[in-house]
Amino acid sequence: MSYQEKLDAAAKAESEPMEDIPENESGSEEPAEEPTIDQAQLDALTANASPKVREVLNARLKAGDDARMVVIGSADIQGVADRLANAVHDAYGGFLSVDAFAYDGTSTEFVTDGMQHLAWTNEYDIVVYEPFTLNNNGVVTIEDEQQHLLQVEERAMEAVPDVAFLVTPPQPIRNAGYYQTQIDNLKTFTEQQNMPYIDHWTKWPVRTSEEINNYLDASDRPTDQGLDLWASALIEYFVAK
Fold it and tell me: pLDDT (tens digit, 9 = 90+) per residue, 100-152?
């Protein structure tokens, strides 16, 4: 009897008409949302960005597509990316979104293990890469870090051939020593490769001053003020006032 009741219920369900699917007045599916900004607004917002960034965003706007950015780097990049994401959302609306991929390791570990876990299927139009230079200090050679940087760029281009690939350094530290040499070489290398380099180091106080204590904790990790300072350089790059 129980089995027969189930059969009867199934037969009744098949005989019931399906609910109407909402359509627009023309009878077709709802059209995609219009871009939230126009060309003039985009031109103004990207006034400080590189020609490649402007080229990619202009192409997406003309195609009626949204654009996506990812910020990749060591652990503290998450706080920087969160601040950038808020500013970008306020300025671009839904046209441009920002994701973050923070990885606690060296560039060697990132390219051999971490990079494969990034959601490249999101087809990021802009990639901002912090190349783990501080984590590499005393562990990974300058030359190897440079090769890892090129590998990350290559992977980004596999996902989106016309991707805009940019580099930003990690935070400064007190008594930098060899780390300063690493940073100098990173900047020179990106210039040689024609990669846009977002340099936030010029914003930080003198690292031997007492003021630096407001921006770096005792372990040389950025405080909230330090993250604000770092993020401000990226915000100014992507959101021109």
Answer: 999 999 999 999 999 999 999 999 999 999 999 999 999 999 999 999 999 99
pTM: 0.84
Q: Determine contact, residues 135/102, Cβ cutoff 8 Å.
A: no
Instruction: For residue 184, give both structure tokens.
Output: 């100098």
Return the structure tokens found at 221.
């990790």
H/E run at residue 155? helix 142-159
Token representation of residue 41: 């607004």
Task: With beta carbons less than 8 A apart as the criterion, state whether 68 and 99 touch.
Answer: yes
Q: Are 53 and 46 in contact (CB under 8 A)?
A: yes
Tokens of 238: 């992507």
> CB neighbours of 150 closer than 8 A, spacing ≥ 6?
193
What's the distance, CA 186 to chain centroid? 19
